[in-house]
Amino acid sequence: MNKWLLAIVLVSMSVATLNANDVFKAKQANMKAKMADKQSQAKSKEALKFFKQKSECIDSAKNEEDLKSCRTKFPPQVGDDLVAKQ
After folding, report:
1. Which residues make Cβ contacts (< 8 Å) with residue 16, sequence separation at least 6?
2. DSSP codes, the chain
3. Among 19, 50, 58, 78, which is least packed by CB within 10 angstroms?
4. Burial letters for 13-27: b for 16+ Cβ neighbours within 10 Å, e otherwise?
5. Is the pTM for the entire model greater than 0.85?
6. How many CB atoms within 10 Å of residue 34?
7. Tens of pLDDT, residues 41-60
C-alpha cells in the first residue's frame, strides 16, 4: 500500500514539474517573439545592441525569475523608445 502511495506521489510531482516547465517555455517563447518583432523594426546600432543583449538574456533564462530579471534589465519601454527614436 505504501509503495503505491509513494508511486502516485512521485508521478504527481513529475507531472507538475513537466507542466511548470511547459509554462516557462511558453512564456520564454512569447517574450522572445515579442522582442523579435520589435527587433525587426530596429535600425540603429543602439537599438540592435539592446535587442541582442535582451535576446541573450531570454535565451539564458532557466526559470521564470530569470525571465523577470531580463524584463527588469531590459524594459520593453526602452526598446520601444529606441525604435521610435530612429
Report:
1. none
2. -HHHHHHHHHHHHHHHHHHHHHHHHHHHHHHHHHHHHHHHH--SHHHHHHHHHHHHHHHH--SHHHHHHHHHHS-HHHHHHHHHH-
3. 19
4. eeeeeeeeeeebeee
5. no
6. 13
7. 999 999 999 999 999 999 99
